[in-house]
Amino acid sequence: MGAGHPHPVYRAGDSAVHRAPAEVKIVCLVFFVFAVVATPREMFWPYAGFAIVLAAVWVVARISPAWIAPRMLIEVPFVILAVLLPFAEGGERVAVAGLSLSVPGLYAGWGIVIKGTLGVAASLTFAATTPARELPVALTRLGVPASITPIFVMMLRYVDLLTAEIRRMQIARVARGDSPRAIHQIGAIAKGVGALFLRSYERGERVHLAMMSRGFTGTIPEMPGVVTSARASAGQWLVIVTPALAATAIAAAAWVLR
User: How far is Cα 237 from Cα 5, in angstroms, rounded to an integer?
Assistant: First the structure.
C-alpha cells in the first residue's frame, strides 16, 4: 500500500489532472458516470458530448487513446450480451441487412455498449492519473467510514498479489504434468482454489497482525511523503469538477429536449 507498490494501470505524469487531489477526482468520476447512466438511451448526441469531455481530459492528462483502447477489452463480455439483445428481445421489429431485429433490443444493446464504454474509459482515466497510495486519505476526506476504507484499499493492493499467486500455482501444476483443459483435472483445480483461499486468509491475518503491531488503529492518517496532494481548496473543487458539471449539463439537456 505504500509508495513502493504503484498500481499497474497508473501512468506517472505531471499534468494538472495528475496533481489534482484524489478526493475531487473521485467525486468527478462518480458524477460523470451517473450522468452517463441517467441519459436516455434513445438519444445519440449526448454520448458524443460525453466522449468530447473525456477526450478533453485525456489531452490535459497527456493520455493517448492508444493506451486506453487495449485496456477497454474488459468490457467485451458486456458487448457480447449487447449484440445478442436485438435478437432476443420482443416488441417492434425492423429489418437490418436481411435480419429481423427488435427495436427495443437495439436500443438496449446500444445503451449497454455506449454507457459501458464511457464508464470504463472514465474509470481508466481516473486509475491512470491517481496513485493507489492517494486513495485511503482521499476516501477518508470524503467521509467514507473508517472501517470500509482500509478494506477497500487493501483489496486493491492484494488483487495483484493474488493474481501473481494464481499464476505461480498454474505454472507449478503445468510443470508437474497437469493439463488445465482436461476434465479429469477438475479435482486438482478445485484443490488449488481451496489452497489459494487458505493462503489468502493466512496472508490477511499476518498483514493485520503486522499493522496492529505498528500501531494501526483502524484509521489511515495523512502521512507526508505518502500522500502527495494537499486537501482541495474551494477553487480547486470548482475547476476540477468541470468535466462532471459538463456531463451533468449534457444529461439534463438530453432530458429537456427528449
Answer: 28
| Paired residues of 96 in beta bridges | 99
What residues are paired with 24 via a beta bridge? Answer: none
Q: With 80 as the cut, is the pLDDT of residue 209 above it?
A: yes
**Residue in 251, 226, 235 with CA at minimum distance from that of residue 24:** 235
* Radius of gyration (C-alpha) of the chain in whole angstroms: 22
Rounded to the nearest 10 degrees, how much is the dihedral formed by the CA atoms of 55, 61, 66, 70? -100
Q: Is the dihedral of CA 167, 168, 172, 175 positive or negative?
A: positive
C-alpha distances out from residue 216 to 131, 134, 150, 155, 220, Å = 22, 18, 11, 17, 8
| Single-letter code of the amino acid located at 217 | T
Higher pLDDT, 42 or 149: 42
- Give tens-digit pLDDT for 36-53: 999 998 889 999 999 999
Distance CA 108, CA 67 (A): 28
Distance CA 258, CA 248 (A): 15
Give the distance, in angstroms, between the CA of residue 51 and the centroid of all CA atoms in the same chain: 17
Q: Find, among 121, 124, 126, 123, the residue nearest to 51 by Cα.
A: 121
Type and span of the H or E element at 99: strand 99-102
Helices 22-38 & 242-257 angle (0-180, nearest 10): 10
Residue closest to 24 by CA, chosen among 126, 146, 153, 150: 126
Torsion of CA 157, 161, 164, 165, to 10 degrees: -150
Task: Please give the full DSSP string across 155-195, using - where no structure is assigned.
Answer: HHHHHHHHHHHHHHHHHHHHHTT--TT-GGGHHHHHHHHHH
CB 43 within 8 A of CB 256: no
Q: Which stretch of DSSP H or E encloses residue 96?
A: strand 93-96
Cell, residue 101: 431485429
Q: How many residues does the chain have?
A: 258
